[in-house]
Amino acid sequence: MATKSAIEWTESTWNPVRGCTRVSEGCQFCYAERIAARFSKEGLAYEGLAKMTKAGPRWSNEVRLVEELLDLPLKWKKHQLIFVNSMSDLFHETVPLKFIQRVFKTMNEANQHDFQVLTKRSKQLVKLNDKIQWPENVWMGVSVENQDYKFRIDDLRETDAHIKFLSLEPLIGELRNLDLTDIDWVIVGGESGPGARPIEEKWVIDIRDQCEQASVPFFFKQWGGRNKKKGDRILEGKTWDALPLAYNKISV
Fold first, then answer.
1. DSSP string, 121-138
2. How confident is the model at residue 201 (pLDDT cuts 50, 70, 90)?
3. Closest CA to 91 of 66, 128, 48, 59
């Protein structure tokens, strides 16, 4: 069985890599870091990957390659929309190119599924682009949390991914004048959990309007906050659940 996900824009998760390190402001209250710290006791799944400190959960700086999970999606026969490495970053600097290529080989062979890969390490993504075979069922995305990281969008545009998307989450600042050329999908979400920084409605509406002007599908994930509430996904009276226009569900 696939690992079902509560993330609104996907269906399942697959984690052939575990562990990470902080790379930008959006990492400050990382949900994966909190989960890893919760299960850091001896003998549990994420032992040693993160620990709770006086300053809160912190990655141990260890990144693990989980070889035994590499072929897992091949066993899932029914179509799944799969988020790759919800507990890490496939393009982390310590993940060997050969392992990344093996992950892509599995995604190519498991063509009954669609895979969503998301990174904050866009420079590494560009560096390795020509060494990757990009199947049509792989969606490549970058995270952008405020104006300082808009360069990741330009980096994404340089890749040969067939579907390119943006995860503007946690949105902690406005994003003006986005260049959405060759972008197939935009997700927006506020930060959630302990310490969550506020999101402003005008930021979300402005991004939604930019997407509509550029004819790019827009998905609003959540307002966030310490406690998610009923209606947390409502923007101007409705939910916004658009998916990439090129996405066709496969039923096997």
1. -HHHHHHHGGGS---TTE
2. very high
3. 128
Residue 45 pLDDT exceeds 80: no
Provide the token pair at 127: 């560096």
| Preceding omega of 73 cis (within 30 degrees of 0) | no
Q: Return the structure tokens found at 242.
A: 């658009």
Who's near 5: CB < 8 A, 6+ residues apart?
11, 12, 13, 83, 86
Q: In this structure, what DSSP letter does residue 149 have?
A: G
Report the chain's mean pLDDT, rounded to a whole number: 92
Q: Tell me which H or E stretch contains 81.
A: strand 81-84
- Is residue 55 within 8 Å of 33, Cβ to Cβ? no
Alpha carbon of 158 to those of 5, 105, 139, 242, 247: distances in Å?
Answer: 30, 21, 14, 24, 21
Beta strand 64-65 pairing with 56-59: unpaired
Q: What is the pairing mode between strands 56-59 and 114-119?
A: unpaired
Maximum Cα interatomic distance, the chain, rounded to a whole number of Å: 52
Q: Around Cβ 44, how many Cβ atoms within 10 Å? A: 11
Residues 6+ apart with CB under 8 A from 233: 8, 220, 221, 222, 223, 239, 240
Cα–Cα distance between 74 and 108 in angstroms, integer? Answer: 10
- CB 176, CB 153: distance < 8 Å: no
Render 50-76 in DSSP notation, one character per residue. EEEETTEEEE-S--EE-GGGTTGGGG-
Q: Which two tokens stand for residue 186?
A: 């935009």
pLDDT above 70: residue 146: yes
Based on its alpha-carbon atoms, the radius of gyration of the chain, rounded to whole angstroms, reads 17
- Residue 95's identity, in one-letter code, is V
